[in-house]
Amino acid sequence: MFPILFLIMAIAGVSGIASALYGNYNTAKRIAIGSGIIILALAIAVLASAFYVKGFVGSVESVAYISQFGISFSLTATVAGIVLLLLTAIVSLAASITISRKFEDERNIYPLIMLFEFSAIGLFLSSNLFLFYIFWDVGVIASYFLISSFGSGNRSHAANTFLIYSIFASAVLLLGIMLIYFYTPVNSFSISYIASHSSLIPSSIQSLLFLLFFVAFMVKMPIFPFHSWMQNAYTEAPTQGSMLISGVLSKFGAYGMLVLFSMFSFSSHFAKYAFVLGTISAFYAAFVIMRQKDLKSITAYSSMLESGIILVGISSLSAIGTAGALYLMLAHGLVMALMFAVIGGIEVSYGTRNIEALKGIIRESMGSAYSFLIGVFASTGLPLTAGFIADVLIFIGAISTYGLYGAIPLFSILLLGLYMYYVVNKSFFAGKEYSNSIAKLPKGIMVSSYMAMAAIFIFGLFPFIITKLLGFTII
Amino acid sequence: MPIITNFAIPTLLVLLIVSGLGSVLYKNKRLSFGINSALFAIMLSFGLYYSATGASFNVFSLYHIYPFSSFAIILFSVSMLLVNFAAYSLDKSYVKFGMLLPIISIGAFSVAMASSLLTIIISIEIMTIPTILLIAMCGKAFAEPATKLFLLSAISIATLAFSIALIFPYDSTLSIAQASSGTLGSQYFMVLSLILLVASLGTEAALFPFDLWIPDVYQGSPNAISPMLAGINKKVAFIALIEISFIVFAGMKHDIVSIFEVLAVLTMFFGNLVALVQKNVKRMFAYSSISQAGYILVGLASVSAFGLEASLFQIFAHSIMIIGAFVIVGFLAMEGLNTLEDYKGLSHKNRFSSFSLAIIMLSMAGIPGLIGFVGKFLLFSSAISSGLIALAFIGIINSFISIYYYGKLISNIYSGTPHKAISIPRSVFVVMLAVVIIIIALGIYPAPLMAIASRASVSLFGII
Question: Percent of chain B scored above 90 by pLDDT?
Fold first, then answer.
């Protein structure tokens, strides 16, 4: 079979290096956007082959890497991998389109975006935990430099907090991965091998293993006790950084959770705790959000809320709930890309993100108001948007596992909707009586928000990914 | 072929002496630099050849060459090459280096190939005395580090001799391979001898309670010499420690595990925690090199072929990284940059040295894709495979701590306002380029070095 996954990785890597080497701003931009479009096209091709080519899902492309430990550089197209590959391709392309020449040192942001895209694609497609860890850390470093080099005002504090939390997560994850290598019957890092032999892992080590992985992924999602890096990182990062970190990097953790719960058969013992944590996290975010005045903070906490809902879906352990969680990852990544792009545009036009200061944006900039509104629709799960499909699936799964308790997290989404519509009304619709001036969004931001919006509606109107792929195992 | 292999090594050692003498007689900086580099390169090719063929033979019943010593030859010749290049432009008159570097290298190579305990003691002396001379010859300002190094190495060599003398009456042989003291079990004098051994070589290898001189000497030494101290002298002590403790004390596995385990934990924490509060960059790297010695001990504490392989890998990796780091830091110190504050805005002054320093520090911190990550991954997995899960966890916590001070320096380098540019001498540039290439290449594809290290560790355990 044609090694299309290797091809995607190679394009991302080579174009990243090329955009780093060519000093010229315009060349770097062309390389980034061109390769972004190619990768998106290839990602769609991968999706199409998953539908129409028999045996494509789950096929492995592999070359020997460190043979002494049986580590190979192997990529596999799982359902979750394909869906998140698509998300990564869309969000990275959208992020590289939003860049305008307003930064002082703007050229260097393209290689970082490409590096991040490379690591994200590698992580979602990797078929063994060793590669998973390597790409995980590369993604963290790329995001760290995105925040620390291109962020706003308080960026070094935000970047350092982010780094400390992330490295803690990496350390815990690394320990878990090394432990599992020595406790599988034939020492192996392969996810599918571990999944099929997880019942043979000695029970004394099971809870420790689960805890190590769970904490690492919790930090990245983020879930309640480990979320305090999030607000600073999301608000201080540049627009592109916020899009990538909330849209894709938080999916590292969510994807990890998905892998964790489908890899270890014993994780079913811990599912109810995960459910409770997800619920607490969602409600915590829903209440904290009501005190936020900064549009970016509001979006950040809405992202944390959605992460809680994703965890609820995964912890339902039913096929339908897990599929819903996967779909919510896709939907939520797109929503975050859309909302942070629009907020970036608003910041450029109005010089502030404070909802107290912003009034009647719709009178001057209709595009940004409606884009933001559509983002709010999708994150509150309004029908026709991708978020609706995801929420329906998740709560069907949760209710079927936990009974009526499964419906409790739904109220956090209602709370989110309550405040979001208040914000939309206050800053976007009400306020100014009449205005002649027109504040247009920068062209790049407009294009990328249209892209994200189109994707939100396509996946909302035609939930074909889920219906076609429900027959396969997710990991 | 046997004639070549038998005579190649002695001939090379003689040539090294000749080259050292020649550089005094002719005082031609370029020529002696070229000859020294060529000799180290030939030594490297012999090391690679022996390692690839798995050669195992005796040379005049003085040296024993087997894959473990081939690994050490490769390690020392690569580091010697880098140090030689660095000394060429970091020091005004290369002549004293031209004379003493070959002698020091003879000491290092002899430790690598030693077949008797006496050879090890003598070789360590052959290496240490020229090092002290080299520091002292750089001027009056360097009398303090030279004296410190002299006192410490004298004490350490006396302790080593005492340690060997303690067991000599019982096995009546000085040959490493035949020293049968392993059969004596853990009697009190054996334990005492082991402790003395660890104390004496631990002094030079920077293990915790014996490492207090390290920061002073590394920081105080001339810029051209600190890379050698950290990259070669320290690693020689490690190689000797591995050879003696694993072969001669093979019967005392449990004692070795507990001693190394405790020392590893203490050394890692000491190095990392003290490095956190340093203001001077050179001193910070000195403490970070102490913590790296702790990581190396993690692999030794598991006393297995896998653990030894991991330690050897990390010894090589750290030797390369610390030489690169000290060369860049030394070069910048000559430009007047000493403290963490001075490093603000370095990326505007010199892009390449900032980039290399950042890569080296990310590698030391254990970021994937770089050689330091592979080393740490092997070390911690070897600890887990021997059941030392707590030790692995402490190691991981420590590499988490180290991110903080490396990250602080990196963010200093990449912040600040534009400054006047600094240009780097060509041979320093060569060292930086070589170090960065090795770090990235072996980080992405570590299999060749792992194979060499694995052969070395298996052959060492085969001797017992």
Answer: 31
Q: Spell out which chain B residues touch chain A, with contact meaning CB-CB distance below 8 angstroms.
A: 362, 367-369, 373, 377, 380-381, 384-385, 389, 392-393, 396-397, 399-400, 403-404, 407, 411, 414-415, 445-447, 450-451, 454
* Cβ–Cβ gap A149/B447 under 8 Å: no
ipTM of the complex: 0.80
* A262, burial (CB in 10 Å: exposed 0-12, middle 13-18, buried 19+): buried
B100 C-beta neighbours (distance < 10 Å), count: 20
Provide φ and ψ at A126, rounded to 5°: -65, 140
pLDDT of A85 over the 60 cut? yes
- A chain contacts of residue B385, beta-carbon cutoff 8 Å: 182
Q: Identify each DSSP E strand in B50-125 by its residue range.
A: 57-59, 63-65
Residue A139 reports pLDDT greater than 80: yes
Q: Does the distance separating the beta carbons of B369 and A67 come in below 8 Å?
A: no
* Contact (CB<8Å) A178/B447: no
Q: How far is B368 from chain A (nearest CA, A)?
A: 5
In the three-class reduction of DSSP (H, G, I as helix; E, B as strand; rest coil), residue B329 is classed as helix
Phi–psi pair at B326, nearest 5 degrees: -70, -30
B185: left (phi over 0), alpha (psi -120 to 50) or beta: left
Which of A68, A164, A168 is opposite residue B454, by nearest beta carbon?
A68
* B241-283 tens-digit pLDDT: 998 888 888 878 888 888 999 999 999 999 999 998 888 999 9
Name which of B362, B384, B411 is nearest A156 (Cβ-Cβ). B411
Residue B325 in this model has a pLDDT that exceeds 90? yes
Q: Which of B368, B404, B454 sits opposite A134 (nearest CB)?
A: B368
Using alpha carbons, list the distances in angstroms from residue B153 to A352, B111, B199, B201. Answer: 65, 16, 12, 9
Q: What is the rounded distance in angstroms from the CA atom of residue B304 to the CA atom of residue B381?
A: 12
Pairwise CB contact (< 8 Å): A141 & B392: no
Strands (E), A11-149: 60-66, 71-76
pLDDT at position B131: 92
| Contact criterion met (CB < 8 Å) for A174 and B396 | yes
Q: Taken in order A360, A366, A371, A375, is the CA torsion positive or negative?
A: positive
From the centroid of its chain, how far is CA B37?
A: 19
What are residue A354's phi and psi, to 5 degrees? -80, 130
Mean pLDDT (chain B) is: 87
Asked whether the beta carbons of residue B404 and residue A164 sit closer than 8 angstroms, the reply is: yes
Mutation site, A115, A146, A175, A181, interface B, largest B CB count within 10 A: A175
Instruction: Give the ranges where B2-142 is alpha helix by DSSP (H).
Output: 2-26, 29-53, 67-90, 95-113, 117-136
Question: Residue B173: which of B112, B236, B67, B247 has the closest Cα?
Answer: B247
Q: How far is B381 from chain A (nearest CA, A)?
A: 6
Instruction: Write down the domain spans for chain A.
Output: 4-469
Cα–Cα distance, B402 to B412 (Å, whole number) = 16
Is residue A147 scored above 90 in pLDDT? no
Partner-chain residue, chosen from A138, A168, A181, that has the shortest CB–CB distance to B369: A138
The phi and psi torsions of A453 (rounded to 5 degrees) equal -65, -45
Contacts with B, A 342-401, CB within 8 Å? none
**Across A51-60, A388-397, B434-443, least confident range:** A51-60
Q: Which residue in this structure is represented by tokens 């595009």?
A: A367
**Least confident piece of the model among A124-133, A373-382, B416-425:** B416-425
Mean pLDDT of B387-410: 86
A65-80 pLDDT, tens digit per residue, is 877 777 888 888 888 8
pLDDT in tens, A238-252: 888 889 998 899 999
A67 touches chain B (CB under 8 A): yes
Distance from CA of B392 to the nearest CA of A (A): 8
